[in-house]
Amino acid sequence: SQTIHQWPATLVQPVGSPLSLECTVEGTSNPNLYWYRQAAGRGLQLLFYSVGIGQISSEVPQNLSASRPQDRQFILSSKKLLLSDSGFYLCAWETGGSTEAFFGQGTRLTVV
Amino acid sequence: AQSVTQPDIHITVSEGASLELRCNYSYGATPYLFWYVQSPGQGLQLLLKYFSGDTLVQGIKGFEAEFKRSQSSFNLRKPSVHWSDAAEYFCAVGAHGDYKLSFGAGTTVTVRA
């Protein structure tokens, strides 16, 4: 069966520090991958999506970047975190022809 | 551009009572519509989705939603809530063929005994 893993579950980082959040998918090939962010009191906002290795589309200009070094690995990064980067980050996958996207358990990031 | 409005930020309901969560969307074509539930500290779980066909959609955990094109709405309902239904609920809209979803701000449901 397919599963999606995100880590870490929680993270507290100082302003100006780097960030790396990892998402991996098991049990499927060539998934479409997504990074969403949920800021406090707001809905989810699509940050990045990827339809294949090395293919990244950014939906919102910001301090973050994404990479897909392997088919089932999706990484969210920042060189220098801002306070406004705090939030709940969710990774999701789907296989293009499917009718459902599957979300990871999320990473709660607090920038202090 | 697509967008979703969930007018109710917070709803409190008694256990056993009915629940209705409102969702209005804006989208130029036939939308794909979803309801997700998020328990505290957890990821999202799909409750139900509408792609086409019957406008009354049945989902998991006893939830249903009705797509009303004339009102641009996709309201979620449950006849009798359980304490375990306390969570945050998100409505989302997407285009045909992809999951670049636009989510509403969410409605937090509190269930009182």
Core attributes:
heterodimer; A: mainly beta; four-stranded antiparallel sheet; about 0% helix; globular; B: about 110 residues; six-stranded mixed sheet
- What's the SSE pattern of chain B? EEEEEEEEEEEE
User: Biggest β-sheet of chain B, characterized?
Assistant: 6 strands, mixed
Q: SSE order of chain A, as H and E?
A: EEEEEEEEEEE
Largest sheet of chain A: 7 strands, mixed
Low-confidence stretches of chain A: none
The number of distinct helices of chain A, counting runs of at least 4 residues, comes to 0
Distance between the termini of chain A: 38 Å
Radius of gyration of chain A, Cα only, in angstroms? 13 Å
In percent, how helical is the residue content of chain B?
Answer: under 10%
Structural class of chain A: mainly beta
Query: Strand fraction band of chain A?
Result: over 45%
Radius of gyration of chain B from CA coordinates? 13 Å
- Unreliable segments of 5+ consecutive residues of chain B: none
Cα shape of chain A: globular
Helicity of chain A, as a percent range:
under 10%
Helical/strand content category of chain B: mainly beta
Specify the overall morphology of chain B.
globular
Question: Would you report the number of β strands of chain B?
Answer: 12
What separation lies between the terminal Cα atoms of chain B?
A: 41 Å
Layout: helices, strands, pairs:
The complex is a heterodimer of chains A (112) and B (113).
Chain A lengths: L2 E5 L2 E4 L5 E8 L5 E7 L5 E9 L2 E4 L6 E6 L2 E6 L8 E8 L7 E2 L3 E5 L1
Parallel strand pairs in A: 2-11
Antiparallel strand pairs in A: 1-3, 3-8, 4-5, 4-9, 5-6, 7-8, 9-10, 9-11
Chain B lengths: L2 E3 L4 E5 L4 E3 L2 E3 L5 E7 L5 E7 L5 E3 L5 E5 L4 E6 L8 E8 L7 E2 L3 E6 L1
Parallel strand pairs in B: 2-12
Antiparallel strand pairs in B: 1-4, 3-9, 5-6, 5-10, 7-8, 8-9, 10-11, 10-12
